[in-house]
Amino acid sequence: MTAEEAFDAAALAACGKGEWPSRAVFWSAVRFGMKAVEAARWADAEERWSALWRVAVAEHLPPIPEAPLVGAPSSMVRAETHLGRMYQIMGSRRPDVLR
What we know:
The chain is an all-alpha fold. It folds into two domains: 3-67, no CATH class; 69-99, no CATH class. The chain has five helices and no strands. Helix 1 (3-14) packs across helix 2 and helix 1 (3-14) packs across helix 4. It is elongated and about 55 Å long. The relative contact order is 0.13.
């Protein structure tokens, strides 16, 4: 994904019209400013966004709040999916009781 593609994806996700495609896109948007991403045009944001994007793609980034599985290893995603199915099968039993 190029910096411009990441910026476009961030602009859509920031205004609720898309999903966060990666942790790097989300954290670049946080550092840039969510409202600024929504309002900016690529021509005006290119230099600053590109610098933030280069840093973000090289970093190990924390999960996205409310979307912790975006960018997670596939084994973790599979585990969370299977746990969710187990909880559904067990019905009304709460996950925190299953220790």
